[in-house]
Amino acid sequence: MSYAYLFKYIIIGDTGVGKSCLLLQFTDKRFQPVHDLTIGVEFGARMITIDGKQIKLQIWDTAGQESFRSITRSYYRGAAGALLVYDITRRDTFNHLTTWLEDARQHSSSNMVIMLIGNKSDLEARREVKKEEGEAFAREHGLIFMETSAKTAANVEDAFIDTAKEIYEKIQEGVFDINNEANGIKIGPQHSPSSSGGSGGRPRPQADGGGCC
Amino acid sequence: MNYIKSFVKGTEDAMPSGAETVGRLCDRVSSSTLLDDRRDAVRALKSLSKKYRVEVGSQALPHLIEVLRSDSNDDEIIAYALETLFNLSTIDVDDEGDMVAQPETILTFIESFIAVTENVILALNMIEKDSFAARWAAVRLLTSLLRGKPNELQQIILIMPMGISRVMDLLAESREVIRNDALLALIELTRGNSNIQKIVAFENGFESIFNIIREEGSSDGGVVVEDCLLLLLHLLKSNTSNQQFFKEGSLIQHLTPFFDIDPESPWSAQKNANFHLMLKVIRTLVSPSNPSNMTSSCQLAMQHCLLLRKLSDLLMATGIPTDILTETINTVSELIRGCNENQQYFASVMAPWDPPRPALVVLLMSMVNAQQPFQLRCAVLYCFQCFLHKNAMGQSQIISTLLPSSLEPQDVSVGQLLCGGLFSVSDSLTNWLAATALSHALRSNNDAKHQLLRVQLATAPGNPPITLIRQITNIVHQTTFLQTRVGLLCLLCGWLTNCPVAVSHFLDNSTTVSFLLSQVAENGTDLEFVMHGVCALLLGICIIDNDGSVSQYTKESLIELIVARVGIERFCDALNCVPQHDIYTKALQKPQPSADEPDHLLLNHTFAKLFKTQEDVIIKTVSNLEDVKKEEEVKAAMKAHDSIVNEYKTLIREQDSKLEAFKGKCNKLEADLTSSASLLSERDAQVQQLKDQYNLLKLTQGTSGDETTAVMTKRIDDLNQQIIAKDNELKSCQQTISELKAQGDVKLSENPSADEKSQKDIISMQQELNRLSITLKEKEEELAKMTNASTSAVVQQADAASDALIAEKVAMQSQLADSKHKLDCAVVEKNQIKEENASLKQKLAEAENQIEELQKTASEHVAKYIESNSVCETIKKEQDDLLILLSDQEEKLSTYKKKLRGLGAEVSSDEGEDEYEGGDLNEEESETNNVNGEGA
Predict the structure, then answer these.
(1) Which residues 85-114 of A have a C-beta within 8 angstroms of B?
(2) What mean pLDDT is predicted for residues A44-72?
(3) pLDDT tens-digit profile of B324-335?
(4) What sign results for the dihedral spanned by CA atoms B230, B231, B234, B235?
(5) CA–CA–CA angle B411, B488, B497 (5° rounding)
(6) What is the distance of C-alpha B130 from the center of its chain?
(7) Which residues on chain B are in Cβ contact (under 8 Å) with A107?
(8) Nearest-CA residue of chain A relative to B158?
């Protein structure tokens, strides 16, 4: 299971918006209709391909409950990507986005890619938050936006993969310091140093080259 | 400095003023405006902090906190303050190994320190100080606080933003002392707190640990490696999420290099400790108490990254300390437990002996060897048990080594070793281990149980061979070792469960039951009670899995015997006392056999589970003897009744099935019916359609086809008539001509050739006409026939049955098309005939022309005749006759002409007729002339 890069993700958002279901749909391709409260943090992983490169996603699914908030804060720093999830059928989960975003921005590395996700798009009849509102929020705060359904799997793949693409592009542009693992990015054991720097990236002295495995 | 020293000395001299001194120092720390002064005071407090813990602890804390808060720019004073706090919160031992202070004192201090969360935050902030002393002291203080009040500290640090991340960052510290103390802090921080464990894993904790292990020399490394492994163990133990992360992150393969050991390097105590921890880490990942999918995926991963191979090599290597060897066996056991791929690999491992022997055999040799350490022997049993767990193939292979067919005397087999162990007379533990091992080969495998019944043993020379089960029973009776007896009884319990054949073999020995009953009835020591309980269980199994084939000991008679000899109550008490025993609860806890001392190894995990499931069933069965008896009576009475009922039942069942079959048939038929009905209606519709089509066709045929044929036939008839008329005309013409010819023959000689020619022409014409008329007739007939045939066929077909209609229609249509075609042909033919007719008319006209020519010649003859009139007076009479005849002919010709004209042929006008007549006359004249000429 060799990979070119490893990206760490976190999934954040209010309780019951479907964070664990998104993860389960992405890693196991199934849907769990019963809401089982996440305790602390749960872990999942999957391999994807971007630009012909194998990329391993390590995803930490956090508990949405307020009581776990302090624990989940510990995960911001080491993540390269965050999926900020709200429930389109519950306005309050949308209203809390600002708090989540502040929390994330405060504790994470400034380069963390945040994808805003309006989940439960299958429940159109019970919709309380318009798609346009989500788009506007994302535009205002510089996030990528997508509406998904963990139940029907609509856009779930895209949500995870598009985030990875964004991170990948940032690596290519040299924005991320890939040698600092605290950024949530790791170069795979098979990755040769010549390609790791990226075409436009700063040439870095690879004193400890290959020591990342 | 001197001042302080003298001051300290002074306090030491005046013993009771310790508290005073501390008080004065605290005053200085709080009131002095000079940093140097404060620094000195804190340093003094630090040096006093070990000796006067209580005093410093009770008075200095707020002042030290204040220093941390306000003097954080001075690394030195911070370091002193932190060190003081560290001293106050650490349990120290002096040179003699005695505790310097009471743990309660330290705990009290720690409690007062962490009572204000901000204090902890302040201390933790100091680990970010660049100063070595400050950072180091902060880390050590953290560790001590965690040791004193772990849960509280963990909660505070967990909630603190970046709390754990900051500690994690210290693992990358280049100053090894700090890094090593950070490891200790993390060990305390992660102890029993899965949330912190997960965050450490998230912060690349595993990778950092493996990096340090590698840097520190792996298994040959020092205490730092041990600390790393302990932290690793904390991160993985009972934390499924981290185990999954560990497995998903392909980190298992990082364990393998640890076992690349240098055979030359000595087994130091540190190496021993490192190995123990590493083996524990591995066992944590494949523990039987983990979720089974987790365990099995880790087992496979460890096989694939060659870890299992490395461990198996270690098993067979020489010079390994016994405790490491024992733990390695236990680790391999759990690595192969219930995992077929790994079990197969293990079965193939050979010991590097001469000749090579399977590792399993070598291990079992240690197990049945009383000289080997107890724990090692237990480990081998565990390994054997894990090898056979969910491995039916392995079980039957083991059993087969006991069967006579496969005995190879030179080779030591598993079967031989187990048998030898079972009947060893010197060591009861050997008996117990062998019996338990054998019971694992039978577990949940009825085939193996049956096979084992076949095993016969050679006893003393001259005596007949004896079955294994009989021999075991004999030893149970005879042995004086409790452990041997219990081991063999447990083996029998496992063997007999769910195997009535084995029960009947067992009961075949008449003394068995009374022996067991006597045991149940006896009093004894604590451990003997356990044995009595096992006897009771065995009796119970004999009742439950009894098929009644041994008439002396049927289900009921056994219960009756229990009632008569010991009583139900006593029997149940014997059973009940087993679960109350520690040995039982310990065995039930986990699969690995364990006991504090060899004598206490009586029950194994598998047996305990069996006991748990069977106990209730047996008590229920036995205590309901009256019910059972009554039941039996009723059963007997009911049996007859039952048989009748059964008969009826079968009858009903048969009828039911028949009914079902019929119903099915009926349904099928109904379905068939509906389908055929629909088919029929479809057909009907088709027929109707075809009929309509037919009618339509008939109609069109009637109106168009029939009409045209009728018109055609009419026309043909007309033509025929015309032809006939023409024929007649021709005939008459011919006649006239022949007559004329005859006349000419008689009279004329001057123009024979022309006459002949015309005659010939006429004849040929006539022939042709005849031929045409014949063909015409034929066609006519054909046509008539055809129309007849088609109409009659069509009518017939129309009358025919409806199911043939489609085909008929097609045939009809084709026939119709045929007839139409033929009709067309006929029309074409008719046209041809018309053409022919026209040509005939032409020919006729030609003939007329010829006739005209002839007339001309005849007129010439007439002229000649007039000229020779005078000469030919004699023939005038004849000529008159001829004239009369000619006139007759003329009449006929005129009628002929008229007819021809009626037919539409172009015939000369009346004038022409006149001329014709005149011509005729002339001709006649010429003829006469000719005759005359001839005559002349």
Answers:
(1) 107
(2) 91
(3) 999 999 999 999
(4) negative
(5) 105
(6) 60
(7) 161-162
(8) A71
Residue pLDDT, tens place only, B193-202: 999 999 999 9
Report yes or no for ipTM above 0.85.
Answer: no
> Residue B124 is encoded by which pair of tokens?
């933790």
Partner-chain contact A107 B245, CB within 8 Å? no
Which range of A149-158, B127-136, B835-844 scores highest in mean pLDDT? It is A149-158
Nearest CA distance, A43 vs chain B (angstrom): 6
The span from the first CA to the last CA of chain A, in angstroms, equals: 13
Q: What is the DSSP string of B119-174?
A: HHHHHHHGGG-SSHHHHHHHHHHHHHHHHHSHHHHHHHHHHSTTHHHHHHHGGG-S
Cβ–Cβ below 8 Å for B158 and A73: no
Domains identified in chain B and CATH numbers? 16-173 (1.25.10.10), 454-626 (1.25.10.10), 658-865 (1.20.120)
What sign results for the dihedral spanned by CA atoms B289, B293, B296, B298?
negative
Q: Report how far residue B176's alpha carbon sits from residue B132's, in angstroms, rounded to the nearest whole number.
A: 11
> Which of B194, B245, B250 lies closest to A40 in CB terms?
B194
Which residue in chain B has the smallest CA separation from A56? Answer: B249
Nearest CA in chain B to A9: B202
In terms of Cβ atoms closer than 10 Å to its own Cβ (0-12, 13-18, 19+), residue B478 is exposed
Q: Does A1 reach chain B within 8 Å, measured CB to CB? A: yes
Question: How many other C-beta atoms can be found within 10 angstroms of the C-beta atom of residue B287?
Answer: 18
First vs last C-alpha separation in chain B: 203
User: Which of B161, B203, B245 is nearest residue A78 as measured by Cβ atoms?
Assistant: B203
Distance CA B439, CA B430 (A): 14
- Least Cα distance to B395 among B360, B432, B359, B431 occurs for B360
H-only helix segments in B748-804: 752-799
Kindly determine whether residue A78 and residue B204, on different chains, have CB atoms separated by under 8 Å. Answer: yes
Distance, CA of A197 to CA of A209 (rounded, Å): 11
Buried b (16+ CB within 10 A) or exposed e, B368-388: bbeebebbbbbbbbbbbbbbb
Nearest beta carbon to residue B202 from set A45, A70, A78 = A78
Q: Which residue of B lies nearest to A68 if distances are taken between CA atoms? A: B159
B chain contacts of residue A40, beta-carbon cutoff 8 Å:
194-195, 198
Element of type H or E holding A87: strand A81-87
Structure tokens at A21: 């279901």
Reported as a single tens digit per residue, the pLDDT across B118-143 is 999 988 889 888 889 999 999 999 99
Size (chain A), residues: 213
